[in-house]
Specification:
The protein is built from ten helices and 15 strands. With 354 residues, it is an alpha/beta fold. It has two domains: 3-140 and 316-351, Medium-chain alcohol dehydrogenases, catalytic domain (Quinone Oxidoreductase, Chain A, domain 1, Alpha-Beta Complex); 156-293, 3-Layer(aba) Sandwich (Rossmann fold). Helix 4 links the parallel strand 8 (178-180) and strand 9. The longest helix has 24 residues, at 146-169. Residues 1-25 have low confidence and may be disordered.
Length: 354
């Protein structure tokens, strides 16, 4: 058993985790660690040291993290997100550089990390310290706080990549309604807020009718129930949308594609409903629509920097405050269950213990 394996004290995710004071002393730090044995995957809140970190040329003191749908899958083990055990989960973090041999970063620099396999095959952000490749880091934009960065997180960054794809396609405010599915979730809520601020007429799809006032506050001009898209779709339906951002997949995406207007586009960035896509080529060859896959994990640094700069410019910080709420580090396992159950509205912000 390796050094980390010896530290594992397995707990079921439903158990409460107790933190006994500040244990971040010297090179020791607090971290969630996911391991796997013959009984399955387990998660523990434990103490590690710098020697337990993986290879990298930048070490970061993590200040804030968050929880995304993928993190929920990783923490609960309901999908094989973790590809190497034991592993520190968490696909996002923001913090300050402690040590660096990378040409672009020096101690004190504020940085953001999303994706690149962090929290999947490389130790992630659910720890007070992280060591990663500097090639994976994006400078925190001027004027953006670390907390705001994680209120945005991978969900908001993915939403902005989706907006950029629709803009690159040529869609502009005034071209017609834009649909956002899963609108009350992390990606959807930020997509609604950004698109509305850019002048688009946004139609928000959600399965939570109680969130109507919330979505209207974000800028949604109309709310539709997600059940509208639940049944198997026709190859072509009535043209309704100039474009769309879809987080669902499955029948929802099939129906959306069938309703996109001629020469429109859909940015596809999630599979909350299904990985399957039961549709035909009809919308693509008879209406000339486009479907853009949004790869938030391996997007280029240039694209990432643009997305984060646009988030700083185009996301109303007052709305961001309404979109986000604070979560204690010890509450992450329960939050994983909640986000998969559709109980989380907006973005959870987690401050690492000091």
């Amino acid at each position: 058993m390796d050094a980390i394996g010896e530290k594992l004290l397995y707990h079921d995710l439903s158990d409460k985790l107790t933190i006994h004071g500040d244990i971040n002393m010297g090179d020791e730090f607090q971290a969630y660690l996911i391991g796997k044995d013959e009984e399955g995957q387990r998660c523990t809140l434990t103490t590690l040291g710098d020697a337990d970190l993986m290879e990298g040329d930048v070490t970061v003191a993590v200040e804030y993290t968050t929880i995304n749908y993928k993190d929920g899958l990783a923490l609960t083990g309901r999908s094989p997100i973790i590809r190497k055990f034991p592993l520190i989960p968490g696909i996002d973090f923001c913090g300050s550089v402690i040590d660096s041999s990378h040409a672009d970063f020096e101690p004190g620099d504020r940085v953001i990390l999303n994706g690149f396999g962090v929290g999947e095959s490389h130790h992630g952000g659910y720890a007070q310290r992280a060591r990663v490749s500097g090639d994976w880091l994006v400078p925190l934009p001027d004027g953006m706080s670390a907390r705001d960065a994680m209120a945005i997180g991978t969900a908001g960054y993915t939403a902005m990549l989706s907006v950029l794809a629709l803009e690159d396609h040529g869609l502009a405010a005034g071209d017609g309604d834009l649909l956002v599915t899963g609108a009350a979730g992390g990606v959807g809520s930020i997509a609604v807020a950004v698109l509305a601020r850019l002048g688009y007429r946004v139609v928000a799809s959600t399965g939570r009718p109680r969130e109507q006032a919330f979505l209207e506050r974000l800028g949604a001009a109309e709310i539709v129930d997600r059940s509208t898209f639940a049944e198997p779709g026709r190859p072509l339906d009535r043209e309704r949308w100039a474009g769309a951002i879809d987080v669902a997949g499955g029948n929802t995406l099939a129906n959306v594609l069938s309703q996109v207007r001629r020469a429109g586009a859909v940015a596809v960035c999630g599979l909350a409903e299904s990985m399957n896509l039961p549709t035909t080529v009809a919308p693509f060859i008879l209406r000339g629509i486009a479907m853009y896959g949004i790869d938030s994990v391996m997007a280029s640094i240039e694209r990432r920097k643009l997305a984060w700069q646009r988030l700083q410019a185009d996301l109303d910080k007052d709305l961001l405050a309404e979109l986000s709420f604070d979560l204690d580090f010890s509450e992450l396992p329960q939050a994983a269950e909640d986000i998969l159950a559709g109980k989380v509205r907006g973005r959870a912000v987690v401050k690492l213990p000091e």
